[in-house]
Description:
The protein is of the alpha+beta class. It contains 7 helices and 18 strands. 20% of the residues lie in helices and 34% in strands. Strand 1 and strand 2 form a beta hairpin. Helix 1 crosses helix 2. The longest helix is centred in the first third of the chain and has 12 residues.
Amino acid sequence: MNIIRYLDDSGxxxxxxxxxxxxxxxxxxxxxxxxxxxxxxxxxxxxxxxRAQLSEIKPLTSxxxxxxxxxxxxxxxxxxxxxxxxxxxxxxxxxxxxGRMDATTFYDKVYDAERPEIFFKSTAARTVGPGAPVxxxxxxxxxxxxxxxxxxxxxxxxxxxxxxxxxMSCRDIEGENPLYLPQAKIWKHSCAIxxxxxxxxxxxDPYRFRLACRIYRGxxxxxxxxxxxxxxxxxxxxxxxxxxxxxEIFDGTxxxxxxxxxxxxxxxxxxxxxxxxxxxxxxxxxxxxxxx
Length: 292
């Protein structure tokens, strides 16, 4: 069971349940957090609570492709973890050493350390949903998408559900100096999430998600990569525990869990590209790329 948001014919946002059979049921709640709160009052899981409502709601005659989708949750904050996959480690080392893969860097230390890399990524105002453009940074010449599994969390670190995230990154800025990480990661429209949140109780094993990223330029596919969350070096609970440690997070916070799909080192995004990020059971997040 997935939760989506879309604009109706009057331009009003609507929350809806998307079943695994593809049926879409508009829900009376305003957002996913209202479902979570009402489910808790009813002493049900969010999945049980949503299923109980569907028998009294008529499904839409429209299909998913015809809807104007929004971010599935307006996350007050988006955080991200880095160097959680070996492929990400290799990419970060390439950036930091100018291609000298035999050199040891601080990324190696993070990969093997007890403490993971966790950084602030975005706010609701900087985050876009399906179909909305992600922006290129004007002072970077080496930019890529980073397809990631996102965890939608409660303020106590509980997992409400799973979504898709695009952690847009400037490889040249981060590689120049690690202290430039915020500038390499945070700018207007540098984060996308969607198209849905898959409720946690509908996921048997979060380490069996399959990810794919495809980039199109001029209508032709110029990159495709795949991965699985089973390749994660760190456990999801481990990442969450460090995020909430001595920190205050808010209901609906999203934690991106790192990437294992990195385009070739000679590749950089360009204006007019289209990014597709797919995660099994959640859907496909599609965003065009625009220069500022």
